[in-house]
Design brief:
single chain, 418 residues, alpha+beta, five-stranded mixed β-sheet, two-stranded antiparallel sheet, 62% helix, elongated
């Protein structure tokens, strides 16, 4: 069965890739059906008989012409319909005995209704049905009220209706596919927008940290310029350059972050950037919100570099926010900050049942944390814990590599936020 199914699927794919071959096979099948049908002779009152009257040569010629025309039914359906309908009219008027050339017209009309718009399908279909039915009633060998004449009307009408139904279903499937693709594009754009917002917040935090230290350098250089008494001219000149350079750096940094900000954004904060020094305040806030939190920290001295301290704080803040939002009722969290050699390890675990990812399913908060940690040269892992709950683990280098020139894109990552 598996081999048979594979063979059928391979044949279908080949026919889909070679539509002309499929139409040629269909034309051959229609020709065989027309030739077999031409041997059937309806006898009123006695029922149809087979083989009592073979088709005439002119009838065979008309059937072959109609079948050959069907080979190009996809390329020019209206022209093929016109040709097959004309052959059918000729057969109804001239052929004796009659030949079922109308079969080719039925296939051609179905193709027109399935591959054109609805107004065109209805206009062409009604015209074809009317012309063929009138020709059969007026010029056919049977009386106008015979069932053969009404059969022409029924077959052509059903062909048009079936083609219109196929076209409607195809349009419905295409609309569903387009809607799904549009939803996928919208979801991707939303993810990119959230990542851009996360990177923008990182840029603001870095601005606060770097601007604070550059401002200190600027003040100290100004003071030194007034107290230096050894070779004062050169000292003052050098310190003046330091002061000018630091002021320029501040201006350029401010301008860069100003470009990253969108219109309507709130003004930049004036308070120092948060860090592990205010971790107790963050934990108290989370506890007041109803989430029990236990903290285990090694000695916080000497303090971490400013960028690393900020990243550690933000990771803990985001992780606790996710626990509070998604861990479910009765959950507890544990925060651990450990200095191990040249790295600082931040761990946040919970015993909840709701998972630790963002509620929208996209994981944008985790993505923002990973961007922040990676920008400093660290690593972040997050996932469910064995036995339930969620775990976020970040490893940050004590000497942050925020401006590593050897790693492509490092500077770009540190200048963008969440």
């Amino acid at each position: 069965m598996t081999t048979l199914g594979t063979g059928v699927l391979r044949v279908r794919h080949w026919l889909r890739d070679h539509p002309l071959a499929l139409d040629a096979a269909l034309a051959l099948a229609v020709l065989m059906a027309m030739i077999i049908g031409s041997f059937v002779h309806p006898r009123p009152g006695e029922g149809p008989s087979f083989g009592t009257r073979p088709p005439a040569a002119s009838g065979v010629l008309l059937m072959v012409a109609g079948a050959v025309a069907l080979i190009w039914r996809r390329r020019n359906p209206l022209a093929v319909l016109a040709v097959t309908a004309g052959l059918t009219v000729v057969e109804l008027v001239k052929a004796d005995p009659p030949a079922p050339v109308v079969m080719a017209t039925v296939i051609a009309l179905f193709t027109v209704a399935a591959r054109t718009d609805r107004p065109t399908a209805w206009r062409v279909g009604l015209l074809t049905v009317a012309v063929l039915t009138a020709a059969a009633m007026l010029f056919g060998p049977a009386p106008w009220y015979s069932q053969e004449n009404f059969g022409v009307f029924a077959w052509t009408g059903m062909a048009g209706a079936a083609g219109d139904a196929v076209r409607s279903r195809r349009a419905f499937v295409d609309a569903i596919r387009e809607r799904a693709e549009r939803a996928e594009r919208t979801r991707d754009e939303e993810a990119r927008r959230r990542v851009a917002e996360e990177r923008l917040r990182i840029a603001r935090d870095l601005h606060d940290v770097v601007a604070h230290h550059i401002a200190l350098v600027n003040v100290q250089a100004g003071v030194a310029a007034h107290v230096m008494d050894r070779r004062p001219d050169q000292a003052k000149e050098a310190l003046a350059h330091v002061r000018e350079a630091s002021r320029s750096a501040l201006d350029e940094l401010r301008a860069t972050v100003g470009l990253l900000r969108q219109s309507g954004d709130p003004a930049a904060p004036t308070e120092p950037a948060p860090g592990l020094a205010v971790l107790d305040a963050l934990v108290d806030t989370v506890r007041r919100a109803g989430l029990p939190v236990e903290v285990a920290c090694t000695d916080r001295r000497p303090p971490l570099p400013a960028a690393v301290d900020l990243a550690a704080y933000r990771v803990i803040q985001e992780a606790l926010t996710n626990v509070r939002k998604h861990a479910g009722p009765g959950a507890k969290a544990e925060v651990s900050v450990v200095r191990v050699g040249a790295t600082a390890e931040i761990t946040v675990i919970d015993n909840g049942s709701g998972g630790g990812c963002d509620g929208d399913g996209g994981g944008h908060g985790l993505l923002g944390m990973r961007e922040r940690v990676t920008a400093l040269g660290g690593t972040l892992t997050a996932g469910p814990r064995y036995g339930g709950g969620f775990r976020v683990h970040a490893i940050l280098p004590v000497e942050a590599r925020t401006a590593e020139s050897g790693r492509p894109g490092a500077a770009g990552r540190t200048g963008e936020d969440a």
